[in-house]
């Protein structure tokens, strides 16, 4: 017997008129990507912010104070709470008081000599407040970059930042500069002795591996030319990162500096991880981390945002590493296996919707879920909302992947009525251009899928 629709899905919140389809260009719908126009992105971001504000009429969210370095104005960010409750619209003073109270909770926890990660995760799962650099510090703790002992922070940060500086010196150097530095100590002595004797300039001996035309596997020049293609791809993708945000894409020098930092991080990562190297879309995962760390009010943290972002990026990708390895696509740890898990999760919690999508209309989840999962939902929502989603993803002690799948499943359930009424074409368009939604409610539904097993919900 087919499972019936749960009562909590029949709330009045589902009866609101669905927003019009978003005309945002589809990115990463498959493994090949398309060039994104800045105008389309700007229009998408504006429409999403407007629609989100309409849905959140039951809750008046606090308005965060944007960091001074950011030129654009970020949309308001809602508190993560039960959106099905009967709370009336509160005053702005009440919202501000609640935001201040939450900031105080975080600051109190972060001021302890030894951080209680269980409590920090609990607070973070409900959304991290803006201001005071709280999200920057909390994300570094959740990703394991900062130790829980505050007394070790200075030494650990100094060590990591020094290590990243060394990575850049070794991996971002032109081969001719490497050769010059290797030969400099010896050649200086040889040049001096020979010039003293004959007054003639000597020619440096160039080994086979150091010759620009060498095709040997150990040739630094051969490796340099192989890396050129990847570096060019990274450069193109970085320039397309959030074209609607001045932080990343303005003509100002600080935006160009931010692009250069993203590029450095991705090149260093690609060279240190030859099994994965660089895959299109990594720039989209990197962007939120660098944005948060670069806007930290602590000037010391801001100065080393590039180094801190690199190590946090490595930690974040460690949980999704296999999704970017094409050789593992069909393995039990590959992206297709993860998409299958999402399909089974939907079948477990809403068999009627699962059957309509995959059996009746034959919408293969790979058509939409590939981008959702590999890019951690950064392309489905506006930038501010994606930060709230990441607060929840990073706070899960079991790792972000299971939470990510629950959120993806909740995304399907939230638009179930439109999907059940649609055919292949309309459903695929809807899921590849996900409509604006109440992020608080989305996270609430995702959490309900965790706390209430299917046989209890239905």
From TrEMBL:
<feature type="compositionally biased region" description="Low complexity">
    <location>
        <begin position="29"/>
        <end position="60"/>
    </location>
</feature>
<feature type="compositionally biased region" description="Low complexity">
    <location>
        <begin position="85"/>
        <end position="98"/>
    </location>
</feature>
<feature type="domain" description="Rab-GAP TBC">
    <location>
        <begin position="129"/>
        <end position="397"/>
    </location>
</feature>
<dbReference type="Pfam" id="PF00566">
    <property type="entry name" value="RabGAP-TBC"/>
</dbReference>
<dbReference type="InterPro" id="IPR035969">
    <property type="entry name" value="Rab-GAP_TBC_sf"/>
</dbReference>
<dbReference type="InterPro" id="IPR000195">
    <property type="entry name" value="Rab-GAP-TBC_dom"/>
</dbReference>
<feature type="region of interest" description="Disordered">
    <location>
        <begin position="1"/>
        <end position="100"/>
    </location>
</feature>
<dbReference type="GO" id="GO:0006886">
    <property type="term" value="P:intracellular protein transport"/>
</dbReference>
<dbReference type="GO" id="GO:0005096">
    <property type="term" value="F:GTPase activator activity"/>
</dbReference>
<protein>
    <recommendedName>
        <fullName>Rab-GAP TBC domain-containing protein</fullName>
    </recommendedName>
</protein>
